[in-house]
């Protein structure tokens, strides 16, 4: 792809372009995600497998003692309450269910 000469644009125009580009990136990412989801649904249906049978759900392994409604499976990004507790010197074992 040839470089784009942006020298002729003022700051407001560049910000407008950036806004439009970010919107387009989000739209394309959403479209790709939707197409992938549709392909997954079609594959599962073609195999006669319910989609929920393909998704493993993990049971919570940790609970916030200050708010029993807050749990974490130990997968993915740590919730704020875990991260703050670990930063203050507590251990994950303190929160095991």
Overview of the structural elements:
- The chain has 97 residues and is mainly alpha-helical.
- The protein is built from two helices and two strands.
- It has helices at residues 11-47, 80-87, and strands at residues 62-64, 67-72.
- Strands 1-2 form a two-stranded antiparallel sheet.
- It is flat.
- The N and C termini lie far apart (54 Å).
- The mean pLDDT is 94.
- It comes from Massilia orientalis.
- This is H-NS family nucleoid-associated regulatory protein.
SSE blueprint and pairings:
Elements: H1 11-47, E1 62-64, E2 67-72, H2 80-87
Antiparallel strand pairs: 1-2
Protein name: H-NS family nucleoid-associated regulatory protein
What can be said about this structure in brief?
The protein is mainly alpha-helical and 97 residues long. Helices cover 46% and strands 9% of the residues. The chain has two helices and two strands, in the order αββα.
